[in-house]
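During data preparation, we tokenized the protein backbone, and the record follows.
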Amino acid sequence: MALQRIVFWLALASTASAISAISAAQIDVPVSLRQENDRTGSCAHAEIVTQLRFLGEPDEANQWWTTHSGGENASHLNAEMDAAAINHVDGHTLEFIREANAAGHLVQVEVYAGLCTHALIVSDITSSFVRLIDCNHVKRDWQMPLNDFKTYWTGWAFYLEN
């Protein structure tokens, strides 16, 4: 499984380019709000924490991080967010991601990373590139060609609302 993850990260690193503003809708998230994934298989939870902090909900973010861990799938994660009364909107298209970013929402996505999936946040999307925030590398953003993103994206996305 480690080799499969390396394949994804090599693909990401080989297509990543210098980060610059790629559209007017770009959302900048300070590193201080980003939750580093310091536990195995908790990337979806770390990205939720980042979203909650970005929304100005630090107490809810800390509560989530202390009570949730481990790998997730879409239906289970949705159920957990519902149980915690966290408002979320799901989507399954690139247009959903574009519209959500344009409205100022960070969009959490799931990508294939070998034999498992990995959660990332889309902070910008254009006709050519996707800007990604990764809880495994919180000090930098990744800019990936849109076609490469479409290759790895599972088709599930969501954002949180206050």
